[in-house]
From TrEMBL:
Residues 148-278 form the Aminoglycoside phosphotransferase domain. Transmembrane segments: none annotated. The keyword Transferase applies. Coiled coil: none annotated. It comes from the Bacteria. This is Maltokinase. SUPFAM superfamilies: Protein kinase-like (PK-like). Keywords: Kinase, Transferase. Its EC number is 2.7.1.175. The keyword DNA-binding does not apply. InterPro entries: Aminoglycoside_PTrfase, Kinase-like_dom_sf.
Amino acid sequence: MSSINIDLGQAQWALEAITDGGDDQQFTQRLTDGQQDYLKQPECVQALLKAWLKHPAVNVHGDAEVVEKAIEHLKPSRGEQTNASLHTSSSMWKFYRRISPGTHPDVEIPQVVRAHVPAYQAHVSARIDGRDYTLAVATQLVPHAVDAWTIATSKDPTLLQEHSAAMGLALQEIHRDLKAGLEIGTIAAEELARLMHRRAEEHIAQAPELRPYAARIHASFDALEGMIPTQRIHGDLHLGQVLWADGWHVVDFEGEPDQSLSQRRALLPTAYDLAGLIRSFHYAGLGNPTALLEAYGRFDEILVNACVVDRFAYEVAYEKRHRPDWVAVPLRDADALFSQQG
């Protein structure tokens, strides 16, 4: 199937195939009039929700009252986002622009983690060629929340510094629940290192600014040893994904948006999430989050160091591709990063 369409009058909703099929067939979700994007326009999205309730290929799951309220009272959410987010007084709705087959992490994880993650309320899926694709998810709205990146880069990041230990404890509890509720595994250090080496070479090819650090990047991966536990993790954790509202709440478990859904649901070392927060503190110019790491508890320091370096290389390549003016930001503390690792 190459597409599904619904004519809503002002705009047309469409799922358009962007890959050649197979087990990981992917689509883009669009709501446009051919020019303007309406996926953030409340009245158009409300009309889309009504149409979904009647479409034979679309299924609406979860709390029906949450869906009915969205049809009546959606408002756009602020901020630059890969997907489209809108909210009611009690729900946050996310509409995905790129969809893949399988259970979406934003549906699955809030039903497994007991605290620090907004509760699942509802979601919408499409049945295409015998497989389910998540189109949208509603989770509990965290009222009066401010993200940790905004705090970190404000004139007074005191709140973040005073509560960074609580962030580390929250992440430890999330990882514990994910380990207990979903699949776990192991990976040999040599195999993980090979994956990191390959990614690093790709990043260096994309961002020549990484070449002076290539030997030290690869040496960090060569230091890995033994069998390394793996499990479901956040996958793209940074301070922008952590909200403060009388405590820390972690959101957006969809992982790196450039990856397929199967890649984003892969089992990985929890060190990746720690590395994401460490590098986010570095981005904000706050140094290492010592209190956060101490509160998180025991971890493999060599593994975390390797994941920090892996994240560093990814960041430089990402900025080179998407925000060239920002390349200097991840590079500014590169020498200090490698000197800390000895």
